[in-house]
Amino acid sequence: MAGNAGFREAKGDLRLENVTKSFADFTAVDDLSLVVPRGSFFALLGPSGCGKTTTLRMVAGLEQPTSGRILIGDTDLTGSRPYERPVNTVFQSYALFPHLTVRDNVAFGPKRRGLKNAVQLADEALDLVQLPHLAARKPAQLSGGQQQRVAVARALVNRPEVLLLDEPLGALDLKLRRQMQVELKRIQTEVGLTFIHVTHDQEEAMTMADTVAVMNHGRIEQMGAPEAMYDLPTTAFVANFVGQSNLGAGRIIDTDGDRLVAEVQGSRVKIPKARSSVHSGEVMFGVRPEKVRVRREQPEGIGDDVKGVVRDVSFIGVATQYLVEVPSGAIWSAYEQNLDVEPIDLRPGDEVWLTWQSGHAFGVPPDDDAAASPMVIDTAAED
Ligand SMILES: Nc1ncnc2c1ncn2[C@@H]1O[C@H](COP(=O)(O)OP(=O)(O)OP(=O)(O)O)[C@@H](O)[C@H]1O
Ligand SMILES: [Mg+2]
Question: Positive or negative CA dihedral for 43, 48, 49, 53?
């Protein structure tokens, strides 16, 4: 393997340049270009079948791109074998060796590479995942979360430049999942290597990653810091895949200073120019549910508003969620924090005004799929 040392020592940002992967006449990954800065935590987020695993497999060398290049720093890895790459993968199925102890599972890679200090390296990796006390156990004697940490240790022990995680938390219950998210983030910060974490859980991607790329149909729809992407989605798909959005199809009819004026299903609303990726013609108007207030009377001086009828009120502890039917027939969602001494006390059938500051609105290109389902009541139900 000496001849491959150049690859293993490749260091720097991971770059995918115009990477396409076709299976027969189906394009799983479509002209994908992205840069993952060295040492960052990058999440690839998208619905089932959008090409996440295929992308990871190409980075790992388990699959070759149909076209395009994959580089780490200035080293072109395209065409090289998996073991030649400074990349390790943690799959959803942990695939630990059942007959080996935890320590031997972790030491397996370094031993195979002939490293004399394999066991010491394994123990260091087990320290990192906080499992040294279980080193003598067999995988079957561990919980799911512990097995997952062994799988991470087994990948980390090889000191890869890039660690790929393909839905490694999918099998865990919600509480353990949250714990492991914090744990993985801590490990990543501690060792400072590049993590690419694949998930279809938007909350997981947002809480863990420095940068989130939202994939759909083999392409990246939007990429950026979680807060920025949540604040300003640039497509209807992202607006509803990353959190929820109230969306309405409309048309831009005028401008007013730094705002666009749009007619959206009978209502006039404003969108800051800087928050709209469309500046004329058809537009999809959007506003996040927590930016929308619910009032019995038409409010004055708050911003834009639309009249509607309450269809559902659900108390969810930190807030109350109102589902309100607006004149277009779409159901909008609004969250009111439970701050008031006197709650609003609304019931289904009540007429209300929904109001929001126009500075919170955003505009994205029209999208037939999103228009067909104007609002997602529960994003979890879509998984
Ligand atoms: N070897 C293959 N031959 C043909 N089609 C494939 C092959 N591997 C993947 N695909 C197709 O490519 C698309 C992307 O698959 P991929 O496994 O990358 O999706 P994913 O985003 O990881 O989805 P999930 O969240 O369900 O794991 C899917 O439609 C899949 O059926
Ligand atoms: Mg997958």
Answer: positive
Position in ligand 1 atom list of the atom nearest CA 215: 21
Distance in angstroms (rounded) separating the CA atoms of residues 365 and 344: 35
Set out the domains of the chain in order of their start, with CATH numbers. Answer: 2-226 (3.40.50.300), 232-369 (2.40.50.140)
- Residues at CB less than 6 angstroms from ligand 1: 23, 26, 28, 46, 48-54, 200
378 has a pLDDT exceeding 50 = no
- DSSP letters, 8-34, are HT--S-EEEEEEEEEETTEEEEEEEEE
Whose Cα sits closest to atom 3 in ligand 1?
23
Ligand 1 atom 27: residue of nearest CA:
48
Q: Nearest Cα to 61, choosing from 28, 85, 36, 43?
A: 85
pTM check: above 0.70: yes
